[in-house]
Specification:
Length: 214
Amino acid sequence: MVARFRSTVLASAVLALAVTAPAVAEVSAFVATVGFDASANLERGQGVGLRWGKADGLLGGETSLLVARPDRVVDWGTAADRQTTTAIFYEGRMMVTLPVGQIRPFAGVGFGAITLTEAKVTAPASANDAVGQAFDAISGLQTNSAFSYGGGVRYALGQRLDLRADVRQYMVFSVKGVVGNQVKDALASQTGIELARDRTVRYNELSVGVCARF
């Protein structure tokens, strides 16, 4: 009887410790809407993602993976070809959170890479070599370095479960893109100008998800 009582007390103590111990890691799943820069020939797309690390203390860090599905399009005035591509965002972040109360604001900066999968955009039938090469350049696989910054809020749903909302902007370097008006001019003049150029563009992300701490 005494041994059973001791076992029960020990099990209760272990369970209480497991429930009240500080979280050492967290994982969150989220859905997002991502706005893309028109200079990259991409339109807004929806995405899903995961984050993992420890970002609920005052100082923390996390890794984020987001997969979105934007349309790649070049509009040269009379027509436009539209193809869906996949954008893969992967980066590490440093986070600062105010861990007080049920609503906790946070901010963070990150650095990583964004990969765009191949999506063949068809050039106009009257395209010259310059236009054809430009369309080939933007249709291929691209991986570009990116710096991001943003913030958001956490709302505690329980001791180890939060609702999380983020707003984030990405600065993406050396993205190949063409301007529709330049394509139109090149078609009219049939000149061999360079149309596909590297640009620094900005993407933005608005996401909502659920975060579990362990």
